[in-house]
Amino acid sequence: MTCIRNRTLVAAAALVVLVAQPRLAGAADDQILNAEILPGWQTASGTYMAGLRLDLAPGWKTYWRAPGDAGIPPRFDWSGSDNLADVQVHWPRPKLFSNNDMRTIGYETQVVLPVELTPARPGEPIALRARIELGVCHDICMPMDLDLAAPLPAAGTGRQQAPIRAALAARPMPGDQAQVGEVLCAVEPISDGIRLTAKIDVPELGDGEAAVFELGDPSIWVSEAQTLRAGQTMVAHADLVPVSGRPFELDRASVRITLLSTEQAIDIRGCAGDQPARPARPIASAAAE
Predict the structure, then answer these.
(1) Sign of dihedral through CA atoms 97, 98, 102, 103?
(2) Which residues fall within 8 angstroms of residue 234, CB to CB, at 6 or more apart?
(3) What dotted CATH number matches 174-272?
C-alpha cells in the first residue's frame, strides 16, 4: 500500500484519491463491499435509531472516523433526505492495523454504525438518503461512493435491531466510567503549528495501547500520537498543524482523546491546562496561546 507521511500533503492526497470512485447502491462491488441501512426503533427522546451495515470481503477493511495518515476518512452527506434535522453517527470500538510501519484504524469483516436521526418535523416519517464516501483496503486501497436510501421509521425486526444494539454497546467507554482520573494538556509552539502533550491518569489498557487525538476543526492535521507509560499515567503527544502552518490558539475543551488497546477503548472529552514538565522548554500557557 502506498502511503504519504509528509504532513503538508496528507489532506491533498486524501482529496485526490477520492476523485474517481466506483459507485454502490446498496449492493456488492466485485464482492468487496455490501452496504445496507438497517431499520431500528424510535428512542425515548423522539429520535430514530437506524444502522449502516458494511459487509467486507475476507481480508478487506474500512476506516474509523479518524483513520490515521494512511487511511481514507469516511464522509457522510445526508442533504438528500427529507424531514431530517440532525444526524449523529455512533462509532463502535475500532481496531488498530499496522502496515509498512504506519498505523491505520478501522474495521474488518463487518461493522454496523448506529445512526441516530433527529426529524425536522417530529412524528412524521423520515425519507433517508445517504451519500457516503469511504475507503476500503487490502493490499491496495480504493475509495467507494455509497448511495443508499430508506424510508424511516420502518418496522425493524428484532433480528435487524440486534446488530445496532450490539454496536451501541461496543462504543468506547466514557472516561468518567473507565477509572480515568486527571487529564492534563500542555501546549508548545512548533514551526508549523503546536505540539500537544497529554498526561492521563488511567490504568493500563492491555496489549497494543495507543492514543488518538481529535479536534473539533477537521482542517487541522493531527499526527499519530506517540505514547509512553509512567506507572498509572499515560503520556501522549501529537503535532497539530493548521492550514496556515503557524502556531494557533487551542481550545482544550474541544480536544477528544480515544485510548485504544486490543481489549478495550476509552473516550475522553476535553482536558485541563498543564504546566510544562521542564520549565526551560517553551510551553505556551492558556493565556498565551
Answers:
(1) positive
(2) 198, 199, 200, 202, 209, 211, 227, 228, 259
(3) 2.60.40
**What CA–CA distance (Å, rounded) separates 125 from 113?**
21
CATH of domain 10-171: 2.60.40.1250
Residue 167, SS3 per DSSP: helix
Q: pLDDT tens across 59-70, in order?
A: 999 999 999 988
Q: Which is it for strands 226-230 and 233-241: parallel, antiparallel or unpaired?
A: antiparallel
The ranges of the chain with pLDDT < 70 are: 1-30, 155-156, 275-289
For the chain, the domains span 10-171, 174-272
Question: Vertex 104, ends 73 and 8: CA angle to 5°?
Answer: 65
74 close to 65: Cβ distance less than 8 angstroms = yes
Asked if omega into 276 is within 30° of 0 (cis), the reply is no
Q: What is the pLDDT of residues 170-184, one digit of tens each?
A: 999 999 999 999 999
Side chain identity at residue 107, one-letter code: Y
Sheet holding 48-56, edge to edge: 33-42, 48-56, 110-118, 86-89
Among 61, 45, 54, 149, smallest CA distance to 98 is for 61
Q: Which of 168, 196, 142 is nearest to 52 (CA)?
A: 168
